[in-house]
Backbone:
DNA sequence: TTTTATTTGCAACATTGTTGCAAATTTATG
DNA sequence: CATAAATTTGCAACAATGTTGCAAATAAAA
């Protein structure tokens, strides 16, 4: 984890690497991602920051992070959109998140299982796969 | 496929089997599902029916169909919710849709690949899987 | 420190989804 | 087939979520 100071510095470099200005909103939101054990959705940021930031700013910040390959979206069957930090190998035009996602039916948390590879899918003839998204629902380690 | 007459009868039985009244809205929406090659989302119904039905009625109809196991949801990374018909083996408390979903990046269509099984996922110790959702993006047969 | 570029917050709006209730339709009953 | 009972529908009103333009504030560059 590291001290608060170290985290702030790490966030600073991450933003500068992505050619983004280092602002309070961006720093705070990245901090929340790093502290969190799982994926976050828009509403979480308003709660966790106590409405310090405008809704619009949060939307725009998340979009910017997506564009720069800092975070990725996780598919859901409801209208919420969940986001999680990408691994360091991701960049603006190249996502390398070849992991699956796990949603716990008990605690509601969604986490990235970074060690669990996305399986090979054997598609019918004529179909070309580009990306494969896997979301497993069940009971997580902590809730078992 | 069958004649219009036959489809209407099939829909009637399906609704009665699920202990639902046979109404115009429900018949029309099921008809659209059966005609459609892929998954549909709420907005499609308003378009396809030419605003014949109230938004609220469509929401409630889709929810009812979900509850009865007539349709299922497909996960997405945006705020839209996509629905598709379940296979005949599904019932109110028992879904048996063990297939993957394919979203074409060209035509935007989402389809159920009924012959393609959901792969076994080997989770880390401590995790219990309940359902596995797989959505593959790429280029479909027709767009290739 | 000043200039320039970027980001933020506000207002206003668009879209999507929900709830209560009266009217209309469907199903059950005599 | 007519009527009663149950269910479904449409409307109005609201809540939540997401978007856009623009002026003020902040960060980066000079």
Residues:
């Amino acid at each position: 984890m590291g001290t608060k100071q170290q985290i702030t510095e790490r966030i600073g470099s991450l933003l500068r690497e992505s050619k983004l200005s280092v602002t309070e909103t961006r720093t705070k939101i990245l901090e929340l991602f790093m502290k969190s054990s799982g994926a976050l959705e828009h509403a979480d940021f308003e709660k966790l920051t106590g409405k310090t930031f405008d809704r619009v700013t949060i939307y725009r910040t998340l979009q910017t992070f997506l564009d720069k390959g800092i975070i990725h979206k996780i598919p859901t069957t409801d209208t919420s959109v969940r986001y999680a930090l990408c691994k360091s190998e991701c960049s603006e035009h190249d996502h390398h998140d070849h992991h699956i996602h796990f949603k716990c039916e008990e605690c509601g948390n969604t986490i990235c299982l970074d060690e669990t590879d996305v399986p090979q899918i054997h598609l019918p003839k004529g179909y070309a796969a580009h990306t494969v998204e896997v979301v497993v629902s069940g009971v997580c380690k902590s809730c078992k």
Remarks:
- Chain B touches chain A through 39 residues (CB under 8 Å).
- The radius of gyration of chain B is 16 Å.
- Residues 20-21, 23-26, 53-57, 60-61, 79 of chain B lie near DNA strand D (CB under 10 Å from a C1').
